[in-house]
Amino acid sequence: MTLFEDLKARRVGDILTVLLVEKTDAKKSASTATGRDTEVTIPEPTLFGGKVTLGGRDILKNSLSSENKFDGSGDSQQSNELDGNITVTVAKVLPNGNLLVQGEKWISINQGKEYIRLQGIVRPIDIRTDNTVLSTQVGNILIDYGGTGTLANSNRKGWLAEFFTHVLWPF
Fold first, then answer.
1. How far is CA 47 from the centre of its chain?
2. I need a surface site. Which of 29, 123, 133, 151 has the fewest CB within 10 A?
């Protein structure tokens, strides 16, 4: 390495630190009301010009009616913030000089493990002199943050609750 060589990532295998500064806020609400009433009257059938009876009671007299109503509403609000950093590796230098970077970081805490995975495209001009780049400057970024263990499992629905709230549940 020469005295004046730049230490910023630029080749496959070089390391780059991504500073995670993600923040999202989302809100959505919906309301739906529908209804339909149907009534059908079928003329009473006759046999040889007279009503069909059994014991003096009309047995073929018919009418149909149905009513269908639906009233539903939903509201959702979500806010997320992710601060920290992850060191990634240059996986590929694209023809235009941009860098495809990817990396993964695992942290063991108490009775579980947390991980963060990152993949995206970095423009060399966005890399700072200390070989870092903000996550807001990474294109086509994919950030996957999750965990395993006791704490992560406590945030999941149980199998019975999942069964009754499944999208295919008819009731």
1. 63
2. 29
